[in-house]
Amino acid sequence: MRHLTELRIGPVGFRIGSDWQEPIESIRDLYRDYPAPDDQIADFNVHLFAARPWRRFLRPAVHIGGDFVIPDAAPLPLSQGLLAAEMAMNLQMALGQRRYLLLHASAVERDGKAVLMTGLSGAGKSTLAALMMSRGWRLMGDEFALIDPATGRVHGFPRLVSLKNAAIDEVMRALPKARFGPVLKGTPKGTIRHLVPDARSIAAMGEAAVPALLLFPSFGFDADERKVLPSEVFVRLTQASTNYVAMGEHGFTALTDLVRSVPAQAIDYPDTTTALAQVERLWDAL
Amino acid sequence: MGRIVSDGLLLAGALRDPMSTTILDSKDWNALLAIARAEQLIGSLAWRLHGVEVPVPVTRILEDARRSAEQCRVAALWEAEMTRRAFGAADIPVILLKGTAFVAAGLAAGVGRSIGDLDILVPHERIDAAEAALLAAGWEWVKSDAYDDVYYRRWMHELPPLIHRERDRMIDVHHTILPLTARVRPNAAALIADSVEFGSGLRMLSPQDVMCHAAAHLFADGDLAGGLRNLWDMHCLLDEFGSEGLVTRADLHGLGSAVARAARLSHALYGTQVPEGWQRLRGADPLYLRRLTARDGWGRPTRRLTRFGFYVRSHAIRMPPTMLLRHLWTKWRKGHVPR
Predict the structure, then answer these.
(1) Does the keyword Transferase apply (chain A) (predicted)?
(2) Cβ atoms B234, B214 nearer than 8 A
(3) Cβ separation of B30 and A39 shorter than 8 Å?
(4) Domain ranges of chain A
(5) Is A189 on the interface with B (CB under 8 A)?
(6) What's the average model confidence in pLDDT over B203-216?
(7) In this predicted model, what pLDDT tens digit does every residue of A202-221 receive, in sequence order?
(8) SS3 helix, strand, coil % of chain B, rounded to 5?
(9) What is the CATH code for A101-284?
(10) Exposure of A179 by Cβ count < 10 A (0-12 exposed, 13-18 middle, 19+ buried)?
(11) Cβ contacts of B243 within 8 Å, gap of 6 or more
């Protein structure tokens, strides 16, 4: 492909090829402190391409491809090329990852122990993870938590934090010195702005942690907490995993071990200040 | 040391001679892994390279591929077993085809192989009973389109695909190995009569017929998509079974030229040991090689014109011209465009 960059996020190496310079420049800039894949050999390839040669110039539309593809994925305008690259990397993970059980969850770490937060889009996974990073937690990732079936430990995948709509200003206030990507308006998920994880989170991204607390946050309700029984946790996490079925028995064992060993709480919250206090209190009570 | 190519030949070379990968640099490895994934040969490659010293990230990627292929094997065998149980009461034999047969019989062709749908062969006169048994056991129609349904039932060599509503797995129930519209008409009765049982009530085609089917699948049907994988099947089968009796059997099915071409290309790409008559390329063979290896270093399809030529060919051999025109016209009106 015409333009190319390589990077490693957590334990996963990517090679990104593009028909355009712009998305590659954005990735290089925002991921400048990330290492290259080990030995320059990538786990996954990502393609950002024009469906027809003239669509490189005429109303350029960025199609997403790679080692693993879904048919009929809608293309994005070139101005959202960075988002296309991010989506394409996520897609490779969601469809192709077989080493780790993939949980659609954000994760933060303190003292070698991790809090995993999972929930539907809009539950506040990314926002809470970013705000916890501003309070001294190590950000392990805002999208995927990787459970190693061999050890039961969680590996981080600290890609750029994808902040949406109202969360953007809130996190910018909490992290005034952090690096942010361009404001992407009119994306399929509204306005998006990417946050670069802090230096410590990037430097420590290869370090796994012991899962210690599982949270199911829900935004927009009166403050409430309830313990979630293992049976419900199991079902919710099978739904939150993109590769649980494909991992077969390894996936089942990894998930049941996790569910048995880690306490789980559902937390409802009306605002992030309340949520952060809830998380800290639950953490201290462990 | 020659220049390392980055098309399908890179993959063929690694499968043929695993030690040849010791000179690859990171760029070559990225290309090899991408092409192997695109051709669905990453699991086969992973087993071929097992024990060969490779860079650390490659070791990890190949370990994942082996584990993934193993899960594929388990799931494929489970589908075969589910089908056997569904057919049990109706006393319909389950003759496994392609990947599932390879892994069930423990053939080299099954080692690391990716397996998608379950393909089985059922006697033509039992096809209605087979359909009823599957529907009763939880399989459902995939296609709701009336034209497609009628087309399958009238002209194809298989039922319209069925999918299991709980396990989300597809089954293709064949009553012969080529569409009824194709010029070549393999002897389905002989395929079934000479099939062999390998315990637990499951059957597969005889060794010669397995190779005939692999060749038919490669050249008498389809546009050679996934051709490197299908040809790797042929290589492993020839290697394991030898070619004795193959020509006679292929002639019985009208597949003599398809089998000969498969053997020649397998010899050329994978170094398969074949009789002397199959050791040199003939006729359009180079064009087939060009099509089979049409990938770039990102695993993307290349050689658009060659691919299109084989796409056209796939339709031309599948049905007579007037029927093809009518078919394409109907499909086009329904909004179908060739990829």
Answers:
(1) yes
(2) yes
(3) no
(4) 3-96, 101-284
(5) no
(6) 97
(7) 999 999 999 999 999 999 99
(8) 60, 10, 35
(9) 3.40.50
(10) middle
(11) B263, B274, B275, B278
